[in-house]
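job 3f2a | input accepted
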Amino acid sequence: MPHRFRLNHLVLHYIGFRPVEPAEEGGPTQEKWQRQSDQLQDIAALEEEIEGHLLDLVRDVWDSPDAGAVYSARFDDGFAGTDRALVRGYIADMRREVLDQDPGDLQARARFLALSKAIDDRLFECTTLAASPGLLMVADFSLTYTDDRYLALLKIRHSDERFVTILQDSLTDLGVQEVEMMLTKEVLKGMIWPHPARLDYDLKLVDHQARYRHEPALYFARDFLGCQVKQTDAYQASRLPRDLPSDLAREYDVELDPDRTDAFVADLIARTAPTAGRVARLALDTGLIQGVEAPALEGAIEERLAGQLPLTASGEQLEPDLKGLARDEGWQYEPERRHDFRLGVEKALRLDEMVLAQALVETGLLAEADAARLVASMKRIGGVEISRQALLMRTKTRRRLLRYRFEVPRLPRSPDFVEIHISGPPETVQRFLHRENGGNYVFVIECSPADFRREYR
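job 3f2a | predicted structure (457 res):
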C-alpha cells in the first residue's frame, strides 16, 4: 500500500545525559551531551518497512486531533532579535534552501544537514537536566498526492543505547527488526511546519510528556521554537464556556446564570456559522471559483450546503462540494487557490473578544455586565481565542444525535428499498460521509476485522 507521505531528506541526532565524574558535592550528578550525524540517510536505499516505521512517527503527529498533548502554535514576533528566534530563522532558511529546491539537489542536501545540526545545537542549549534523552529526527517530507513539502522535528524515545553508537552509520546497514527494537514509535516532543490543517497557525506541536499540564514544556515551545501556543480545542471546549464567564462574574461582582451556559455556546456557534453569502464571497475573492457572479454562486451554495454550513469548522470541509458545484455548473475551479480560501474561512470563523462579549450579554449569562467592559477585560488579561471546532466539541455530548437514512434500491426499477441508518454526532459522521461531486451522498467506512461488530436482531 503506498504511503501518504514520502521522505525527501532525513537525519538523526542524539541528545542525552551522562554522569558527572567526578561529581562535586552539592553539584549536578549528570550533564548533557550530544552526538550528531555527519551524513544524511540514503532514503532510496532504505528498507520499505524501515521507511514505514519512520513515516508512522510523522503520521501520528499529523493525524492527532487538537487535544491532549497536541497544540497549534504561532511564532512569537516578540522574540525577534533574541536566541528564541533562532529556530524560526533556521526553518525559514530550510524552506528557501531545501524545501523549495529539488530533493536531489546536492547543495540542498548539504544545507539540510548543516541546518539540522544548527537546530540540534539550539535544542541542546535549551534542554534542561530534567528532560528525557532522545533522538532528534529532522525530516523533509512530502504529501504524496500534492507534493507539498513539510519539515518535521521529532524527539523520539529510543529503547536501546546501541542506536546512539551507530548514528554515524546508515540505517541501510540495519535490519528491520533491529531498527524497530532500538527505535520506539513514541514521539516525546515534536512539531510539523507548516501546520498541516490550520493555516492561521505556523506549526503543529506535540508534547506527550505534558499531557496533563495543558501546555507544552517551556524549554521546548518557548525557548527552543520561540512560539506562543494555543490551548487545545478539547481543553477550550471543557474550560472556556464554564470558567471564562465565572472569572468575569467574580471580577465584576455580577450575577452568573449557569443555566444559560448551553445557550451561550449555542449562540457562539450560530454567530460564527459560515453563511452561503460569506462562503461565496471568499470563494470569489480568493479566486477559488471563477466565471460566476456572486448572487448565482450564493444561491447555488445555499441550495446544496444549507445543512452542512452550521457544522463547518474549516474551509477544507467545504472544498469537495465547491469543486463539484463548479464542475456541475461549468464554472472554473482553481485548486492552487485553496490555501487562500482555507485561510479566509479560518479567519472568518475565529471567535474574538467582541463576539464572546456580545454572546455573554445577549444570552443573559452575565446579567449585569456590558459588552464594552467585557471586551476591555478580556484584552487586558491577554485576549481570548477559541476555535469553532472547540465549540462543536463542547456540544458533542449534549446535542441529540443526528440520524441519517439512506434508501438503497435492491434491484433497478424495484419499489423495494433496503434502509441503512447511521447515527452519531454530525462532526463525527462527516469524517466518512461526503457528497460525490456535490451530488449523490457517498459514505466509506473501513475498519479492521477485530473492530467489526455484527449484531443480529
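job 3f2a | The first helix runs from residue 48 to 63.
job 3f2a | closed
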